[in-house]
Design goal:
about 425 residues, globular
Length: about 425
Amino acid sequence: MKTIVYLTVFFILIAVAWNAFDFLDPFGRGLRNSSAAFFGYVAKQSIEHGTLLPLIALEDDHPHYYLRHMPLIPWLTYLGFLILGTSEWCVRLTGLVFCAGWMSLLVWMASRWWSTRHALAVSIILAAVPLSAFYGSIIPDSASLLAVLLNLWCYYRFLETNHRKYWAGLIATLILGSLCYWHVFYLVPLYFLHGLKERAGRKILLWYPLLAFSILVFWFAIVNLSRSAETDLGLVRMVLFVIPPPFLWLATVGGHVLKLVTIPILALSLYGLIVNRAPRYPLIMLGLYGLMHAILFRIHLLTHDHFLLHLLPFIALTAGCGAIHLLDALGNRKILKVLLAGCCVAVLAFCAQTNITLYGRMKTDKYERQGRAIKKKVPEGTLIYRRGLLPQVLFYTDRTLDAKKFIENQNMQWKKAIELYGIRFF
C-alpha cells in the first residue's frame, strides 16, 4: 500500500515538474506564454495605476478594465508581484500551485471512488499525456478546473452524507469558481437534472441554482457598469449563435486531440468507459462538463487547443479504469504483463518526446528583446499600440495600451476571423 502511495506522489510530482519546464525562461511562443504574459501585464498595470480591478488600457487617463476573465488570477499575480517582485516565474508560480491542486485532487478522487491502484494509474496518465504536461498549469483554466473538481466533490459528498459542511463547501467553491472563470456554472444544470432524478432537497433544486444565477447577474452588472475594453455581450452572442464549418472544426479539433492526448490514451479511455458498466454519476458529469465547454467555445477551440484540458479529468479517470481492468483481465499471465509494461514504457517515452518538442518550439527570447526595445524608444507615460503587439512583448514594455486603438483592433480581428473561417450565424 505504501509503495503505491509513494509511486502516486512521485508521478504527480513528475506531472507538475513538466509544467515547470520553462519556469525561469522569458515568455516565448504559444498560448501558455501569451496567457501568462497577459495576466502579468494586467497585474503590473494594476499596481502602477493603483487599482484593484484588472486594468488593461487607458483612454484619456480613464481606465479600461479586463473583465472577460474573472479577477482572481490578476489579484493573485498582483499579490505575488508585491511580495516576490515582478518576474516571469512569479506569474508561472500561480499556475503551478493550481496545477498541483487539481491533479492531486483528481488522483485522490480516483482513490476514494475506486482504489489506490486506480489512483496510481491516473497519476501515471497525468504525467505522460502532453495535454496535462504542457497545459496543466495554464491560467486561468488550471484555477477554474480546481474549483470545478472541488465543487463536484462537495456535491457528491453532500448527497452521500447530507452534511452541512459539504453544502457550505458547495457554495464556497461556486463563489471561488466564479472568481476564476465561468466553468463552474456548467455544473449547475447538471446538478439540477440529477437532483430531480434523485429527488434531492430544496437546497439543490431551488437554492443552489438561485445562488448561481444571482452570482451571474452580479458579475454581468459589474462588467456592464465598468469601463471594460475586453468584455461585451457580443462575445456572448458569438458563443451562442456562431457555427464554424463542420469539417474544418472536426479536422482541426481532431488534430489537437491526437497531438495532446495521443491514440493509446484515447483507446484506453474508451476501453475504460466500456468496461465500467456502472460509472459513478460524478464521472458522467465530468464528461458532460468537458463536452459543454468544447461545444460552447467551439469557435475558440479552433485556435485554443488548451480548452481540451477540461476534458482531461474524464479521460484520465476512464483511462485509469481501463488500465486496471486490463491488468486484472491478464491475471497471472506474466508474458502478457511484460509486453503490456513494454508498451507502457514506449508510450511514456513517446509522450516525453512530444512534451520536449512542444516546449522546444515555444522557447525564444525575441519577445523580451522586442519589448525592451519599445521600452527604450517610447517615453514613460506614453500610451502605446500597434497591430499584432503580442502579450509576450507587452509584458516587457512597461507601457500602457491605448484603449481606443486596442478596441478598434479587437473588433477588426473578430471580423477577420469570421471571414477567414467562413463562420456563419444561425
